[in-house]
Every structure is written in structure tokens, then in C-alpha cells.
Amino acid sequence: MPATIMIVDDSRTMRDMLHRTLEGAGYLVVEAVDGKDGLERLSHLPDPPEAIISDINMPNLDGYGFISGVRSLEKMQKTPILVLTTETDPVKKERAKQVGATGWIVKPFAPAILLKAIERVTA
Q1: Residue 81: which H helix or E strand, with range?
Q2: What is the pLDDT of residue 123?
Q3: Can you list the residues of the chain whose pLDDT is less than 50?
Q4: Which residues touch 29 (CB under 8 Å, ≥6 apart)?
Q5: Which backbone phi and psi does 92 adopt, to 5 degrees?
Q6: What is the pTM of this model?
Q7: CA distance linking residue 25 with residue 8, whole number of Å
Q8: Which of 13, 18, 34, 115 suits 24 as a labelling partner, its CA being 20 to 30 A distant?
Q9: For 1, which DSSP code?
Q10: ∠ CA 103-121-105 to the nearest 5 degrees?
């Protein structure tokens, strides 16, 4: 069974690009439109996804709140979470790391680099 990757991003265009990239590499993809939606969708999945790709700047619940929420779930404490954002501020990157992010990728993303990052964190 293919590995499942969750995408959490408020941009439809970005979700579509990520979905195509991941699906093309053989992954199953679950999408959420923001952090709040992401936590709700996670609560309905039978098993945790193998990895999560999350934006930081989103309405309702931003990436920091989403990551904190994911890490508060016992079954999700070791799930890799990659932040995919336009932000390059080292303070924001450190904040994401402190709440539990596994890695940080700056948009726009190169599909090959993103897929290597997914392979690395799910190995």
C-alpha cells in the first residue's frame, strides 16, 4: 500500500502542485485547507500519514498551531512534518523547529528536492 502524505496549505494552487508531485511519485495524498482543517482530518484518518507538509501562514490555525496540535496527539509525535513556506526568517524557522517541525523548505519548491526530503524523513 502506498504511503500517505498530508498536505496542509490554504493555497489551492500549491495544494494542486504538491498533489500532482506526490501522486506522480506514487504517494496517496490527503489535503487540508488550513491548520484547523488539518487537525480535523487527522482525527478521522485510520492511521497517521507517513509525513505531513504544512504551510506556516494560514487562516483559522497557522502552521505553528497546527504543528503543536499534531505533536499533542500521542499517535502523531514521531510523524515527520516538513514546513513548506515562502518565509526565510531564521526566527520563524527556529520557532517551527521548537513546536515540532522536522524540516523547512522554502517555496517555490523543486519537485525532486521535495521528494528527496519526503524519502529522507520517511525512511
Answers
A1: strand 81-85
A2: 86
A3: none
A4: 4, 5, 6, 7, 18, 19, 22, 23
A5: -70, -40
A6: 0.96
A7: 18
A8: 34
A9: -
A10: 30
